[in-house]
Design a protein that fits this description.
It is a single chain. The protein has a domain at 7-210: Ribonucleotide Reductase, subunit A, CATH 1.10.620. The longest helix is centred in the N-terminal third of the chain and has 34 residues, at 60-93. It has 13 helices and no strands. The chain is mainly α and 297 residues long. It has helices spanning 5-20, 25-28, 53-56, 60-93, 101-126, 136-148, 151-174, 180-208, 213-231, 237-243, 248-266, 269-277, 283-293.
């Protein structure tokens, strides 16, 4: 992959930062923090039923428990999507030379992503959560994609997920009531993901800048489908029965619709702008985005 000179300088700088200022979860996260009992794990605006009557009727203890379970799902999904990203990076690394510029950055990114996965695993354990694994359909789609999708589609998928999850992290690191372990995990992730996001955008330039209408449409659809894929991993009906809902299936259905709306309003501004930057929005892609992601564009 050939980069423009100015982009090359940016990437060189990012390689240096990654080497000189690594953020190690072992020292960056206050793992020994002593709980006061009032900490929350997920902000109301990110909780699937937050804003609905069903949520307001819960006791504070139930609200905290629901937030903790849903955060467990979010962190599991982050770690799992990064495992897929690493599988792809390794696939890509096998195709390029070790002296290649791209190789040097991808190795740094892979190191950081493995550290993130380890951090999410530790954080899940630290808050004593037992998240539900992805469904078999999620697993099947993911492993097939990593095996057969072209590199451009894989980079775009990684970028779409990074852009949206970054918003979750932003909300969590800024909310003062969030458990400090979760807050610092989000802060670390936000800092390092910024580099990954920038790199993916620079890498994809070659594909997105002069793409024709068909490719632009495909790229926009890839972004939409990835976001849908990720969002559907967050809400699980089992969680509502754990929290004590009498009709967990009914609440689950409402939660899915509510989260889709909130996710569309809160998390997709940057992604929408990115698709706009390569003219990916047309009547068809806008229609699909409105239907699937519930965003108004
Ligand atoms: Fe990450
Ligand atoms: Fe990343």
């Amino acid at each position: 992959m050939e980069f423009q000179e100015k982009d090359k300088r940016i990437i060189e700088k990012m390689i240096k930062i990654s080497k000189k200022k690594p953020l190690l979860p072992e020292t960056f996260i206050p793992w020994d923090y002593k709980e006061k009992g009032e900490e929350i794990y997920l902000s109301d605006e990110l909780i699937s039923i937050g804003g609905l009557d069903e949520y307001e009727k819960l006791t504070q203890k139930q609200k905290i428990e629901l937030g903790k379970h849903e955060l467990g799902q979010v962190m599991y999904s982050y770690a799992w999507s990064e495992t897929m990203a690493c599988a792809f990076f390794n696939r890509r690394l096998l195709k390029i030379d070790m002296t290649d510029f791209e190789y040097k950055f991808l190795i740094r990114e892979t190191i950081e992503e493995y550290r993130h996965q380890s951090m999410f695993c530790d954080a899940i354990e630290r808050i004593d959560e037992k998240p539900l694994p992805p469904t078999s359909i999620h697993k099947w789609i993911a492993s097939l994609t990593v095996k057969i999708a072209p590199d451009s589609i894989m980079f775009l998928s990684v970028l779409a997920i990074e852009l949206a999850t970054d918003i979750y992290g932003n909300v969590l690191r800024k909310d003062k009531n969030i458990h400090p372990v979760v807050q610092k995990v989000s802060e670390l992730h936000h800092i390092e993901e910024e580099r990954h996001i920038l790199y993916a955008k620079l890498w994809l330039k070659k594909y997105t800048e002069n793409a024709g209408i068909i490719h632009r449409t495909i790229y926009a659809l890839v972004v939409i489908l990835n976001l849908y894929f990720m969002r559907t991993m967050y809400v699980r009906s089992e969680i509502f029965s754990h929290v004590g809902f009498l009709n967990p299936k009914k609440t689950y259905k409402k939660a899915k619709v509510n989260l889709a709306k909130k996710f569309g309003e809160l998390c997709l501004k940057e992604v929408t702008e990115y698709v706009d930057s390569f003219n990916g929005w047309n009547t068809f892609t806008k229609f699909i985005a409105r239907k699937i992601l519930k965003i108004s564009i």
